């Protein structure tokens, strides 16, 4: 094998090992949206007019919202004043999860048929 071929073989092996050892952070995925969470952060990806599955986070976690759709959306708690963030088309935003454990249903104030669930525990 040439030095060039050895270099690429080694690079591919390192990439494969990194992926197998947990370099990827997606812990929960749905068909049309992605909801992932770690110990202190979570990501909610809006796609195809859908929030994906429920997002489970610890109290006070920062939640990143990515809007993959060509229109503006919001993540707005069904209980007024709990949380609300607007996310422009193809943009990102963040909000802080409530500090009290519980289930927090939310919706898009621009598209009433869109609903999701934030679980704080």
What's the quick description here?
This protein is of the alpha+beta class and 121 residues long. The protein has a single domain (27-120), classed as Cupredoxins -  blue copper proteins (Immunoglobulin-like). The chain has one helix spanning 3-20; strands at residues 34-37, 41-46, 55-57, 62-67, 73-77, 84-87, 92-96, 102-107, 115-120.
Tell me the layout of helices and strands:
Blueprint: H1 3-20, E1 34-37, E2 41-46, E3 55-57, E4 62-67, E5 73-77, E6 84-87, E7 92-96, E8 102-107, E9 115-120
Parallel strand pairs: 2-4, 3-9
Antiparallel strand pairs: 1-2, 4-7, 5-6, 5-8, 8-9
Task: Tell me about this structure.
The chain is an alpha+beta fold and about 120 residues long. The protein has one domain (about 25-120): Immunoglobulin-like, CATH 2.60.40. Helix content is about 15%, strand content about 35%. The protein has one helix and nine strands. A five-stranded mixed β-sheet has the order 3-9-8-5-6, with no helix packed on it. The chain is globular, with a radius of gyration of 18 Å.
